[in-house]
Design goal:
The complex is a heterodimer of chains A (398) and B (466). Helix content of chain A is 33%, strand content 18%. Chain A has 398 residues and is of the alpha/beta class. Chain A has two domains: 10-117 and 212-233, Thiolase/Chalcone synthase (Peroxisomal Thiolase, Chain A, domain 1, 3-Layer(aba) Sandwich); 139-209 and 235-394, Peroxisomal Thiolase, Chain A, domain 1 (3-Layer(aba) Sandwich), CATH 3.40.47. In chain A, a hairpin with a 2-residue loop joins strand 5 and strand 6. Chain B has 466 residues and is an alpha+beta fold. Chain B has helices at residues 21-25, 43-56, 80-86, 103-113, 134-138, 187-209, 226-235, 258-269, 305-310, 317-323, 342-347, 349-352; strands at 2-10, 14-17, 33-36, 64-68, 94-97, 119-126, 141-150, 158-167, 173-174, 183-184, 218-223, 275-281, 284-292, 313-315, 356-359, 365-366, 375-378, 384-392, 402-409, 414-418, 432-443, 446-455. The two termini of chain B are 30 Å apart. Classes of the chains: A alpha/beta (398), B alpha+beta (466). Chain A binds chain B through residues 118, 120-122, 124, 127, 129-133, 135-138, 140-142, 144-145, 148-149, 198-201, 247, 249-252, 254, 256, 384, and chain B through 333-335, 337-341, 343-345, 347-348, 351-352, 364-368, 387-397, 402, 404, 406, 408, 412-418, 429, 440, 448-450.
């Protein structure tokens, strides 16, 4: 029993991503057509030449027909997948394994979410009939419990930590402001962010991911076929996934300063990819900054810095666009927006642009040309009860 | 000999200052306070709290449960079965409603004292009227439970020694089903009828007991007609100091719950071998006479009425009106919750109603219980400590912000759970909490009952409950 991974066996040869925003004039079909068209063009391949499709959507549609119908696919296997907010990543994971197995020569992973048709702010999970005893707390409130726990454990003043969290949001706003596909394209200062009223714990609306519609897609083939389509493929180095069993919610030793599922997931991903020093080997990371305290803890859970130091590293700018490990150079969930099923693939889209030198100069990562590995991290759920996904992508077959 | 084996009471945490009513309603109000059921309480949940206390304090298991209220959460469906489930009574224990009128509660008590087997009699009520009305200001919310049986079944705290009754049809107050208020005839008419009927019932009970009015040590008069309650208490010939405080200035008249609530209050101040008379004025007059036993001296209620009268939080009149459905406030802009599934609820009955978890092979407590664990653990009476907490202004709540805490229970188990009966500013890490049965929301007419945590307050703090 082991997690072997599929390092260097599969490559991404084309990607597409719509703008993430409140697409009042576009439905799910429009978003799927737009991102898939971009991906087809990117790879120079037609839809009938893709052997199989995986559609990730958390709650905008059900079944593969939701993709087959708008794209008018003919006799293709299309599978709809869902894994909370890691849905888009899960679609890619399934597509990669299908190609790696030899079952198909090519596959598309496409993620999309149409969230702004509900008439409500925020994300609203569709209800499964139940006994009525499940928590009704918002995700914002669940993640808000991380900040005071972290402050207490590491002796950080609560006001200082609030500024650290604001700095995370400010960095992601600054990155998003440079990105034409991002939902929010406005820089926000730490002072502005600290002045926002709290809505959940100490968190304001500006500590939360943007809620947007959007779609992103990737086309994968066997690594040895990649150069038929592109000179600059992205090779899959690792695909790691852990589904927590909810034990954090009932474990008295759990202290809300770490996400154990992510620590396990990272260990597996680094083993698959052969990474021993992520801080110095990775060129960039796209992480699941659903709320600002999440990004804080992720820096430690992903091994980017020792326990208890992320807050000072963030203050020092280590994870800024010009820092020594840029994190969320595209603006992250915070600024790029979070259409649930699309977000995991959107993260890979940024790695696709940055590692291949296609991100415009004004928002190019500081590590470009020096390192060639990117990490994407995508989670779903809450502290104590989450699914975690990590991919590692690289430009070289070594 | 029949009598009382144990009792329990529940008064909600909040009080409305009656002097704040007139400024809004333009009329009404008065002196003192009235008790106000929380937005997440109804007659059933308050009944559960009172009944838990009664059952916990006796070794005798009831073989039937009787529930009375005017503020019925359900018609057609039995409400007593919810209490039955929350108490985790066996399926062989019957559960019945005797609902609709204030008098139903004393009727259920009378019936229970006539049975061979021990019975749990639960009464609970929420009293309201239109804004500015006397019913609104003089009413109160609360619940009381009496476990009754015979001396052969358990140790009696008070023996039931006599009763008298006088029944008559007359129109004093009435409510059409579906209305949110009662209507009243001219006050003098009802007072006259009670004055005419009370001596008959009173004399019959005294004669059966072989007592004089002056032998009564504690006289409880409860009923639907506050003026008659006061005048009849004075007219029965009992000593002035024997008249038990009606709680009118602190709690208000709790309707169907009031007879048992005041009887509990009398028992809490009584000493052994004293005589307590309960007189209920409700569409006739019922009199029940009890004599306390030596066992009363060592009985400690889980929560005394006095402690609950004193340990209180406040509520504004505006929020009171909103909670009572008299003021429609902007609902949360979140999807309304779905009704709980009857079948899913049926499968998780012990968890949802009884708050029963499970324990795995390594001793970890699972809440909700795991299908893989064979050991079950009842958690309803466990106390816990707040590990961390948060305030959620975004979540659907009838009383925002939603206060939510991660609670570690004293003998194992952790649960993130909503707090209630709490002001956001007083929540603190390290705070001590206990579990309370509440209504999370109502959807499609289905009341979603479950448990919440609340701060431990009052005299029972840290030593009263097991």
């Amino acid at each position: 029993m082991a997690s072997h991974g599929i390092k260097n066996r599969v490559a991404i040869i084309g990607m597409g991503c719509t703008r993430f925003t409140e697409h009042w004039d576009k439905g799910l079909d429009d978003l799927l057509i737009e991102s898939s068209d971009l991906a087809f063009k990117s790879a120079g391949i037609a839809k009938q030449d893709i052997d199989a499709y995986w559609l990730g959507t958390a709650q905008s549609a059900m079944s593969g027909i939701a993709l087959a119908r708008p794209l008018q696919l003919q006799g293709k296997p299309v599978t709809r997948v869902e894994n909370y907010c890691a849905t888009g990543s899960e679609a890619l994971r399934q597509a990669c394994y299908a190609v790696a197995s030899g079952a198909y020569d090519s596959a598309m992973a496409i993620g999309a979410e149409k969230v702004k048709d509900s008439g409500m702010q925020g994300l609203n999970a569709f209800p499964v009939p139940n006994d009525g005893t499940a928590r009704t707390l918002t995700a914002a409130a669940m993640f808000s419990m991380v900040a005071p726990a972290y402050a207490q454990k590491y002796g950080v003043d609560r006001a200082d930590l609030k500024r650290v969290l604001a700095r995370i949001a400010s960095k992601n706003h600054a990155n998003g402001a440079k990105n034409p596909l991002a939902q929010f394209r406005k820089e926000m200062s730490v002072e502005q962010l600290c002045a926002m009223p709290a809505v959940a714990g100490d968190l304001s609306v500006f500590d939360c991911a943007g809620v947007a519609d959007g779609s992103a897609a990737a086309i994968v083939v066997r690594a040895e076929d990649a150069h038929k389509y592109t000179d600059k493929p992205l090779y899959i180095k690792a695909l790691s996934m852990v589904a927590g069993n909810g034990s954090g919610l009932m474990d008295p030793s759990y202290d809300y300063t770490t996400f154990p599922e992510i620590v396990q997931c990272a260990a597996d991903a680094y083993a698959q990819a052969g990474i021993t020093d992520p801080r110095n080997q990775l060129a960039m990371a796209e992480v699941h900054d659903c709320f600002t305290p999440t990004e804080l803890v992720l820096m430690e859970d992903l091994g980017f810095c020792p326990r208890g130091t992320a807050w000072s590293e963030i203050n020092n700018g280590s994870f800024d666009l010009d820092g020594d490990l840029p994190v969320n150079p595209d603006g992250g969930l915070k600024s790029f927006g979070h259409p649930v099923g699309a977000s995991g693939l959107r993260m890979m889209y940024e790695a696709w642009l940055q590692l291949r030198g296609e991100a415009p100069l004004e928002r190019r990562i500081s590590t470009y040309g020096k390192r060639n590995l990117a990490l994407t991290h995508n989670l779903g759920g809450y502290p104590g009860e989450m699914v975690s996904f990590i991919s590692i992508l690289g430009t070289e077959l070594d | 000999m029949k009598g009382i084996l144990s009792w329990g009471t529940h008064l909600p945490y909040r009080r409305l200052d009656r002097s704040t009513i007139a400024a809004v309603a333009g009329t009404g109000g008065g002196k003192g306070t009235r008790s106000v059921a929380s937005f997440d309480e109804d007659a059933t949940t308050m009944g559960v709290e009172a009944a838990r206390s009664a059952v916990e304090r006796s070794t005798v298991a009831p073989e039937s449960l009787w529930f009375s209220t005017v503020a019925v959460p359900y018609l057609d469906k039995t409400n007593a079965t919810t209490i039955h489930a929350a108490l985790r009574l066996g399926s062989h224990v019957a559960a019945f409603d005797a609902n609709g009128s204030v008098k139903s509660a004393v009727g259920a008590l009378h019936a229970a004292l006539s049975m061979d087997a021990p019975a749990l009699v639960v009464s609970s009520d929420l009293r309201s009227g239109l804004p500015g009305s006397t019913d609104e200001s003089a009413g109160g919310d609360g619940a009381a439970a009496l476990l009754v049986g015979s001396s052969s079944q358990g140790v009696l705290l008070a023996e039931y020694i006599a009763r008298g009754t006088a029944t008559e049809e007359f129109l004093d107050r009435w409510r059409t089903p579906g209305d949110n208020r009662s209507k009243l005839w001219e006050e003098r008419f009802g007072e006259t009828r009670y004055a005419a009927l009370a001596p008959t019932a009173w004399a019959a009970a005294l004669a059966q007991a072989g007592l004089q009015a002056s032998d009564i040590d504690h006289l409880v008069v409860a009923g639907t007609h506050d003026r008659a309650n006061t005048s009849i208490a004075r007219s029965l010939g009992a000593r002035t100091e024997a008249v038990v405080d009606s709680l009118a200035t602190t709690v208000g008249n709790t309707g169907a719950a009031h007879p048992a609530l005041l009887l509990a209050s009398a028992l809490e101040s009584a000493t052994p071998s004293q005589v307590i008379a309960l007189v209920v004025l409700a569409d006739g007059v019922e009199v029940m006479i009890f004599r306390t036993t030596d066992a009363l001296a060592s009985y400690e209620p889980r929560r005394t009425v006095a402690a609950q009268v004193n340990s209180v939080g406040s509520i504004t009149y505006g929020r009171f009106l909103a909670w009572r459905g008299m003021l429609t406030v902007d609902p949360p802009r979140r999807p309304e919750p779905s009704r709980p599934s009857a079948t899913a609820t049926g499968r998780s009955r012990d968890w949802k109603f009884g708050f029963v978890g499970s324990v795995d092979d390594e001793g970890e407590v699972h809440m909700p219980p795991s299908r893989l664990d064979s050991e079950r653990r009842a958690m309803a009476d466990a106390h816990g400590t707040i590990v961390t907490y948060t305030l959620d202004k975004l979540s659907y709540s009838l009383n925002p912000p939603l206060v939510f805490a991660v609670v570690d229970f004293d003998h194992g188990g952790r649960l993130p759970i909503e707090l209630t009966d709490v002001d956001a500013a007083e929540v603190a890490i390290g705070g001590r909490v206990e579990m309370t049965f509440r209504k999370l929301f109502t959807a499609d007419g289905v009341h979603n009952y479950f448990w919440k945590a609340r701060p431990i307050r009052g005299e029972h703090q840290e030593n009263g409950a097991s």
